[in-house]
Amino acid sequence: MLTLIRRSGDFGQRELVIYARYPQLREHLSCGPRTWVVTGAAGFIGSNLLQELLALGQNVVGLDNFSTGHRANLDDALAPTLEKPASVRMIEGDIRDLETCRLACEGADYVLHHAALGSVPWSIDDPLRTNAVNVDGFLNMLVAAKDARVRRFVYASSSAVYGDTPEYPQVEGKSGRPLSPYAASKASNEIYAAAFQMSYGLQTIGLRYFNVFGRRQDPAGAYAAVIPRWIAALLRDERCRIFGDGETTRDFCYIANIIQANLLAATVNDTEATCQAYNIACNESVSLNRLFDILREALARYHPTVGFAAPHYDDFRPGDIRFSCAAIDKARTQLGYSPTHNVAEGLAEALEWYVAQAPATADRVNTTRRHPPLAAGSLHSASLPLVQARP
């Protein structure tokens, strides 16, 4: 069943054909709670998944060591008044510890694995730590999920696995050489996930994200994603840095599309859809120059002086893919995925949040690591039960 929706907005009018599967899935989930593990629950994507699951009346176990995630994200995710009964338990622990992973997976139906070090430059600077978290930690979660007999293990992969492939748009099954340790770690995740399904019967699905953006995306730090970093810079009257000539392209994907893909992947009935990885994006290639123009135009409504801003061009950055655009036919066909927001529509929805965060950006740089751990059994400020997995 298909539903045709016509939408219009600030950036023009277009038609979206949206599979009815996702609205039906949300209705189905709201009628019967299941138990979900969300790793990286205090991060950008994890906290948005947490909020959606709670809104659907689900039981959620969150796991995070707060090395890159923020407790404020948890407060924000728990702030909306829930219409349906739901429960959440937060474990403060590290996926590099197997017993912590076992504690999180006990009694779970689904795992949505998003705990990782998600930066190409960071991986080049510190490949050992990237491997320890993204590969060893991933393997721990697979073992824990297998032993707990979870129904489905959905994990965040990345468009970085395509490396130097000449294919355009990028199509699953046709990848090149990895351009960074981060890319290598994500390619390893996909291999391990397939091996666990073949060896142990643990159903796995990988989601290859392409430049996700939206609410709760951290603009602080040297390795922050381009959209929050540029918005913060423009609002501080600083010049945005573009690596290369600005014609590098990315397929930017709004967080609402990511949430949809995770829930569809976790619950799709066709077992033939498992043991695979899927592109999750919009099949929309946007150059960095064009992105800058979109942001400048949108932010000028809040601060007119932004309309005169110009970028600063630097050398190309090692490890970056030159042209990126996702073919999403496979996800449409096998998962029922269909993006509801393109980059302009996502920015229109999220821009007010980005603008509200800008004044506090400087205070947030690396503050997460300075937070003292909460005492075992103490209550989070949003009344979130938090368990420390290890002292």
Question: Could you describe the 3D structure shown?
Answer:
The protein is α/β, with parallel strands linked by helices and 391 residues long. It has a single domain (2-388), classed as Rossmann fold. The chain has 13 helices and 16 strands. The chain has helices at residues 21-30, 44-55, 71-78, 98-105, 120-125, 127-148, 181-200, 226-235, 255-267, 288-299, 329-335, 343-357, 361-364, and strands at 2-9, 12-19, 35-39, 59-64, 87-92, 110-113, 152-158, 204-209, 212-213, 241-243, 249-250, 253-254, 276-280, 286-287, 312-314, 386-388. The protein has an 8-stranded parallel β-sheet, sandwiched between helices. A two-stranded antiparallel ribbon has the order 1-2. α4 (98-105) packs across α6 (127-148) and α8 (226-235) packs across α10. The longest helix has 22 residues, at 127-148.
Layout of helices and strands, plus pairs?
Elements: E1 2-9, E2 12-19, H1 21-30, E3 35-39, H2 44-55, E4 59-64, H3 71-78, E5 87-92, H4 98-105, E6 110-113, H5 120-125, H6 127-148, E7 152-158, H7 181-200, E8 204-209, E9 212-213, H8 226-235, E10 241-243, E11 249-250, E12 253-254, H9 255-267, E13 276-280, E14 286-287, H10 288-299, E15 312-314, H11 329-335, H12 343-357, H13 361-364, E16 386-388
Parallel strand pairs: 3-4, 3-6, 4-5, 5-16, 6-7, 7-8, 8-13, 9-12, 10-15
Antiparallel strand pairs: 1-2, 11-14
